[in-house]
């Protein structure tokens, strides 16, 4: 599967219609995909992008702390498929020595993957080329 580097380009929160959409765009291209997400995930992403801090960890922050506590780190966030209008994602975690054979890949919702990624700015976002082809004409 060919993966292309991408970035979170926009968060659209329409409170009147209760619609929450995030846009992911190619780094070196023109394709951009819209992903409809839930209100809680939209708030989690928006808070992290704005750098808001809380006295106790929120769910995504807690998950990052647990992953780090067991000696792993996030190496990549991937959006890997689109089926019947639903996007599928993965987070890839590895140990600090960079041994890719020991990477752990976990399926997740794109909204959760992106909520983690915005808290870890060095973690690349990769999107499958076929997903960009299918949904990237926005």
Count of the separate structural domains:
1
- Give me the side-by-side strand order of the main sheet: 3-2-1-7-4-5-6
Query: Which architecture would the CATH scheme give at its second level?
Result: Roll
Would you report the number of β strands? 7
H/E series: EEEHHEEEHEH
Please name the fourth-level CATH homologous superfamily: Bifunctional nuclease domain
Beta fraction = 35-45%
State the major sheet.
Answer: 7 strands, mixed
Structural class: alpha+beta
Q: What is the overall number of helices?
A: 4
How would you describe the shape?
globular
Point out poorly predicted stretches: none
List keywords for this structure.
single chain; 138 residues; seven-stranded mixed β-sheet; 27% helix; Bifunctional nuclease domain
Structural notes for this entry:
The structure is a single chain. The protein is of the alpha+beta class. It has a single domain, classed as Roll (Bifunctional nuclease domain), CATH 3.10.690.10. It contains 4 helices and 7 strands; from the N terminus they run βββααβββαβα. Strands 3-2-1-7-4-5-6 form a 7-stranded mixed beta sheet. The two termini are 22 Å apart.
């Amino acid at each position: 599967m060919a993966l292309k580097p991408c970035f979170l380009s926009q968060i659209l929160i329409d409170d009147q219609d209760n619609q929450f959409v995030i846009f992911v765009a190619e780094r070196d291209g023109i394709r951009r995909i819209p992903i409809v997400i839930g209100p809680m995930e939209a708030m989690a992403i928006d808070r992290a992008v704005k750098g808001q801090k809380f006295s106790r960890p929120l769910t995504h922050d807690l998950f990052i702390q647990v992953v780090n506590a067991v000696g792993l780190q996030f190496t990549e966030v991937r959006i890997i498929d689109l089926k019947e209008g639903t996007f599928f994602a993965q987070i890839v975690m590895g140990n600090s020595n960079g041994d890719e054979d020991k990477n752990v890949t976990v399926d997740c919702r794109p909204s959760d993957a992106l909520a983690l990624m915005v808290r870890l700015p060095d973690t690349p976002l990769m999107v499958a080329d076929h997903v960009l082809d299918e949904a990237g004409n926005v």
